[in-house]
């Protein structure tokens, strides 16, 4: 029974909401694997330490990745 | 003396080499902050647990992000 096999995904709820790059502590990208068939993206927030799962397909995540790159070039000349 | 201020970057050496997405445990994206002026990308490898700092500007990292997204859609129909 393939369904009885426990999968170990990190995310239960996945958000499409945007994340402010300034409030972001880090972003973890976890590839699909044998233990979880989904590509997962977990955002850790700065002050609260709250972890939020983001939808890899969402526009929000594409904008976030872009913002991170720009942020870097602004602050590290 | 601004140079005497300790910065807490995670990366000392940064690689431009490519990483096989199948050997990747996870990828951490750490935005520039007060403690480190650089945007850092840390790859954790599956078997060895080895951590490798990647250059956010490199072609390798752009290809890796693209591969992760494709990997997901292949394995999770």
Short description:
The structure is a homodimer of 77-residue chains. The first copy, chain A, has 77 residues and is α+β, with helices and mostly antiparallel strands.
| Percent of residues in helices of chain A | 10-25%
pLDDT < 50 stretches of chain A: none
Question: What name does the CATH topology of chain A carry?
Answer: OB fold (Dihydrolipoamide Acetyltransferase, E2P)
Number of strands of chain A: 3
Estimate what percentage of residues of chain A fall within beta strands.
Answer: 15-25%
Oligomer: homodimer
Number of domains of chain A: 1
Characterize the overall form of chain A.
globular
CATH class call of chain A: Mainly Beta
**SS class of chain A:** alpha+beta
Query: Can you list the strand order of the major beta sheet of chain A?
Result: 1-2-3
Termini separation of chain A (Å)? 56 Å
Task: Quickly give the CATH architecture of chain A.
Answer: Beta Barrel
Largest β sheet strand count, sense and barrel closure of chain A = 3 strands, antiparallel
Write the layout of secondary structure elements.
The structure is a homodimer of 77-residue chains.
Chain A: E1 24-30, E2 40-45, E3 51-54, H1 59-75
Keywords:
homodimer, 77 residues, alpha+beta, 1 helix, 3 strands, 22% helix, 22% strand
